[in-house]
Amino acid sequence: MRAFVAVEVPPPSGEGGGPPAPEHITLRFLGEIPRERAGPIGEALLPVAEKVAPFGATLEGVGAFPSADRPRVVWMGMGEGAVELTRLASLVREALVGEGVPDRRETFAPHLTLFRVRSGADHRRAVDLLTGTIPPPSPRRFQVREFVLKESELSSRGATHRTVATFRLNGSAVPTG
Fold first, then answer.
1. What is the model's pLDDT at position 159?
2. Are 137 and 112 in contact (CB under 8 A)?
3. CA distance between the termini of the chain
């Protein structure tokens, strides 16, 4: 299964329904793992949840990877909560090294992906957003009370995500069907 660990982000106030795959801030992408590894990985993540208290977070501003001059991914950045998310990602990374997940040691940059630049229209939209021609999304404040282990299935319609386990901060794991 294709898997990742993330913090889910609630939809902006006033928006119902939301996208088919909930928005999320990826803490650690695991890639393809054998399905039977999900249980041990979940067990390794449980102590992480116990070490971190719930905290407030704010999504604000926009940027792009690898750069604003060459946007491939356009994102909304973190204000409040960036330090806590970085610590949480570091604890997740450390816990998973013991489970055989390779430690890539890339720098974690907490962000919410808005869109990927895959076409000329996407590029124009990215330039307009990054230069301020169109306004950035309004800041979004939310509480981080848990993180999740997710399975991701790719199809021609995009990604479908299924929660494998939920880890309440300063709490316990909640297995999901």
1. 74
2. no
3. 15
CA angle 8, 11, 12 (to 5 degrees): 130
The CATH superfamily assigned to 2-175 is Cyclic phosphodiesterase (3.90.1140.10)
- Catalytic residue selected from 28, 111, 125, 150: 111
Residue 123: active-site member: no
Q: Is 111 an annotated catalytic residue?
A: yes
Q: For the chain, what percent of residues have pLDDT higher than 90? A: 70
Predicted local confidence at residue 22, as pLDDT: 66
Q: Does the N-terminal peptide bond of residue 66 adopt cis geometry, omega within 30 degrees of 0?
A: yes
4, 5, 6, 24: which one is catalytic?
A: 24
Residues 7-30 have pLDDT tens digits of 999 887 655 555 445 699 999 999
Contact 154, 5 (CB under 8 A): no
Q: Who's near 28: CB < 8 A, 6+ residues apart?
A: 4, 5, 89, 92, 93, 96, 101
Query: In Å, how far are 72, 143, 169 from 84, measured between CA atoms?
Result: 26, 12, 12
pLDDT of 160 reads 83
